Amino acid sequence: MPDDLVFPMGKYEARIPADREYADNHHWLMRHGDGFRVGFTAYSVRLLQDVYFLSWSIDPDTPVKKKQEIGEIESSKAVSSLFAPASGRLLRFNEALLNDPSAINTDNYGAGWLYEFQTDEALLSPTRYVEHLAAGWERTQALIKGQMNE
Amino acid sequence: MPKKLTVVISQSQGRNPAKRNLEEEIAATLMLEGEVDVSLVPHLYDLHADHTGMLFLKSVPGDLVIASWLFPRAARWVLDRQGVKGLEGQSLLKAAGEEDESDADDSDDEDGNGHEPNPDAVGAWDVPKRKLYCLDLRAYSDAKTYLDEIRRLARENSVQTFDLMSFIQGQPKADQLARYLNPTKRVNGHGSSPGDDSAAAGSTPALPIMDEAEATRRRWYPVIDYSRCTNCMECIDFCLFGVYGVDGQERILVEQQDNCKKGCPACSRVCPANAIIFPEHKTPAIAGADTGTAAGLKVDLSKLFGAPSAIELAAMERDNELVKDGREAVGLTVGIPKRQADKAKSHDALDDLMDGLDQMDL
After folding, report:
1. For position B13, what pLDDT does the model report?
2. Average pLDDT in the B46-67 region?
3. Coil, helix or strand for A142?
4. Is B304 in Cβ contact with A47 (below 8 Å)?
5. B343 vs A138: CB contact, 8 Å cut-off?
6. Domain annotation covers residue B43
7. Across the interface, do B307 and A150 touch by the CB < 8 Å criterion?
């Protein structure tokens, strides 16, 4: 198995496991059953910090389009709407997170998975995702900074 | 000459009884105490320039407390646009959505939530030397918090004791005011007139409140925060509905408020300085929340997780309104800010900020 990759966020190092694929909205996708399991990358979790609340605005087993809004999340540092990582079908949600989303923080690449998802779209390799992170880092910083109004 | 502090309560839109009760409890208590002049006006944002409520606000010469269902920043700049100006008074109360400090009365926030003024900003002009305190009625559900703060401000602003002359000085002069202060409708339906002694004798006092005939309609328009605005003119380039204009000094201003398209906040999204407020928008950063404080509103990571960009969103919103008007959608071809190019901001400051996340109290 290839080594995990690392993306430096300031002093923090976001680990990008090599055993799965990625979407450009900072989710990982890993083959599971009849589709993929999807979760937040370490990059996402780093920006969110402690997750307090997760809710989904669509029902399981629903077709979705890329960038369609599907839910929202609130953490100690951020609130955000959540969007489909690709066009496809959202099969089922990780029910365990709805009462206690802390697994997103403690095990984002494992028990903290968000939902299962089917898609035929091309996904990013770990290397491509790290390149995507590097390319977007400036803008991510501007985003955070802009909202904090310095 | 010492003047009484004037307190104006800007009422909520709609008839939410909890909101009405809060407004009335604050107003009634202050009237009974008699330490401040208190009035009720309709929702500040909805007032046209010639509404008696706005004329009243313009006529208040001294320090003014305005309690409204708006972010203080939004209220302040709505008033500024109407010519009701003053130095920004610092209240100890927080705005809606701001995190509770360990103690709500904590007063270590004297410098305005730590928001650094933008050195390139236009700034407010023709500001008289009086204070304008904007309180956010959405922040607390109990009247006592507001009453305590208003009493504190009244004490702070009247070091001198009241004399009989202050009563005379406090009398309104304009005809509109006479009409304003002699309303036909009373909050609690009591039949007494404003001068009736029975009002002060323990029953709920008569409150100055607007005539029904002066009912306001809901409005929707941008409000410019000149402490942030750099006069870059991106908004006037972007808006295709003729809302913006410039004054004699070439300063950007919201000229035709009611040309604005209800619900459309597109220009605020393209403003590089986050200076455009839509007080009724559901997103706090657009509605005038002071996002300058790290302890305040949270960062919205929606863009990171796949939301359309602010520019894409703004163009979509504008296209929707153009199409509704029977005009052609223009997408990203007209008036799109040039600012993308100079987006590469100082790297170091943000590295600090990211690392600083670790040091924040969670």
Report:
1. 86
2. 95
3. helix
4. yes
5. yes
6. yes
7. no
Asked if B244 and B255 touch (Cβ cutoff 8 Å), the reply is yes
Question: What ipTM goes with this model?
Answer: 0.83
Domain ranges within chain A, ordered by starting residue: 5-145
Q: Which CATH class is domain A5-145?
A: mainly beta
Q: Which among A86, A80, A87, A93 is positioned nearest to A124, based on CA atoms?
A: A86
Distance between CA atoms of B231 and B229, rounded to whole angstroms?
Answer: 6
- pLDDT for A90 equals 96
Instruction: Report d(CA A23, CA B305) in Å as an integer.
Output: 10
Nearest Cβ partner for A148 among B291, B343, B344: B291
Place of tokens 């001294």: B62
Q: What is the pLDDT of residues B300-309, one digit of tens each?
A: 788 788 887 7
Tokens of B62: 């001294």
Q: B105 and B45 share a domain?
A: yes
Question: What residues 122-141 of chain A have any CB closer than 8 A to a CB of chain B?
Answer: 138-141
What one-character DSSP code corresponds to residue A59? -
- Using CB atoms, which residue from B299, B349, B355 is nearest to A78? B299
Residue B22 sits in which domain range? 6-214
